[in-house]
Write a structure and sequence with these properties.
Helix content: 40-55%
Radius of gyration: 21 Å
CATH topology of the largest domain: Ribosomal Protein S5, domain 2
Number of helices: 12
CATH architecture of the largest domain: 2-Layer Sandwich
Strand order of the largest sheet: 5-4-6-3-1-13
Number of strands: 13
Distance between the termini: 19 Å
Structural class: alpha+beta
Shape: globular
Bound molecules: alpha-D-galactopyranose
Number of domains: 2
Strand content: 15-25%
Length: 383
């Protein structure tokens, strides 16, 4: 896409007739492992990637938000009009955090803002949290507000819950804000304690390959995310624990029929997945990224069979990648479409991508887009 910083600066000057006061960027992420654990107070291990949202912004004397997306067009609204259910479409991801920052007590006013993104939308790479966090940092730096990362993540999450209307966990906002290059972020979603775990696949002769199935989860999931969340809360009530984070496999077995078949499976995924996150983090700390493949595959099987959030395209991507030499692979993000990730020997990247594309063609699926990603830094002001 050329130079995104230059692109937003140029568009800002053309559209608003003045230079921006600053430029901010926030990354997309892949979640290495720990899926559908965040809203169960569990563990996640996301990695920010070298795809991002870039925002140029300047304050205004009134409370107008003039929002320009180089990909989606222009929207204009008053800050006083932003609120639950009031903003439709992409503008909610940009206006929501400004509103939520004001609700947190910051003296926020209007903004002129131009943004651009090279994150595929609705692909499970958290394009939404990238927009939220880039905009939030811009508004915070220009108008004032908290410095604490966990508090900022909660503000961005509130925007997504209340303005966008998605009851997401805290992983994506924390990943966009707190990740570091050359590391994965081990996050305890209860305490929000965040540990940087060294992760440099290239040093071990490996690459992280992302396969975008180009099945949009926003179109496909139809409320299933909220249903999964509700099923977990119900299972925790039955087990008498605050969250599934506190349950063990022995607790699930002891509960027998009280959980019901579906509740048991949902809970089994969460309990197993939390253990896999900690096991993978331990291997990465030992600088053994080549050893995490099995856990990635086990995570995928659990999401497919017990949590039931995969999709035929995601299963095909995982199977084909592993058959062609990936050490492990899994769906990443909420599921129902979007992306899979595969940990691949660097020399086998082209073969694996080709094998996945051939399998998609055989099964009559839309052609996937495959690309490698590098662990990148979290959101920050870049100019
Ligand atoms: C989405 C949500 C996250 C998390 C994942 C599933 O990305 O935004 O909070 O729940 O799904 O792990």
């Amino acid at each position: 896409m050329g130079n995104p910083q230059a692109a937003v600066r140029r568009a800002f000057a053309e559209r608003f007739g003045r230079p921006p006061e600053g430029v901010w960027a926030a990354p997309a992420r892949v979640n290495l492992i720990g899926e559908h654990t965040d809203y169960n107070d569990g563990f996640v291990l996301p990695v920010a990637i070298d795809r991002r949202v870039t925002v140029a912004a300047a304050r205004r004397a009134d409370d107008l938000l003039r929002l320009v997306s180089l990909e989606k067009g222009e929207r204009r609204l008053r800050l006083a009009e932003v609120g639950p259910g009031a903003v439709r479409g992409w503008a909610g991801y940009a206006a929501g955090p400004v509103w939520a920052l004001a609700r947190d007590g910051a003296p926020v006013g209007g903004l002129d803002l131009v943004l651009t993104s090279d994150v595929p939308i609705g692909s499970g790479l958290s394009s939404s949290a990238a927009v939220e966090c880039a905009t939030l940092l811009a508004a915070r730096d220009l108008y004032g507000g908290p410095a604490d990362v966990a508090r900022l993540a909660a503000i961005a999450q509130r925007a997504e819950h209340d303005v966008v209307g998605v009851p997401c966990g805290i992983m994506d906002q924390m990943a966009a804000l707190a990740c570091r290059a050359a590391h994965a972020l081990l996050l305890d979603c209860r305490s929000l304690e965040a540990d940087q775990v060294p992760f440099t696949p290239a040093d071990a002769g490996l690459a992280l390959l992302v396969v975008d199935t180009r099945v949009s989860h926003a179109l496909a999931d139809g409320g299933a995310y909220a249903q999964r969340r509700a099923a977990c809360e119900q299972a925790a009530r039955v087990l008498g624990v605050a969250a599934l984070r506190d349950a063990t496999q022995a607790d699930l077995d002891a509960a027998g029929d009280r959980l019901g078949e579906v509740g048991y499976r949902r809970a089994r995924h969460v309990v197993g997945e939390n253990a896999r996150v900690l096991a993978v983090a331990a291997l990465l700390r030992q600088r053994r990224p080549e050893a995490i493949g099995e856990a990635l595959c086990a995570s995928h099987a659990s999401l497919r069979d017990d949590y039931q959030v995969s999709a035929p395209e995601l299963d095909a991507a995982v199977e084909a990648a592993v058959a062609a030499g990936a050490l492990g692979a899994r769906m990443t993000g909420a599921g129902f479409g979007g992306c899979a990730l595969a940990l691949v020997p660097a020399g086998a990247v082209a073969d694996v991508a080709k094998a996945v594309a051939a399998t998609f063609a055989d099964r009559g699926f839309r052609e996937p887009a495959s690309f490698t990603v590098q662990p990148a830094d979290g959101a920050r002001r870049i100019a």
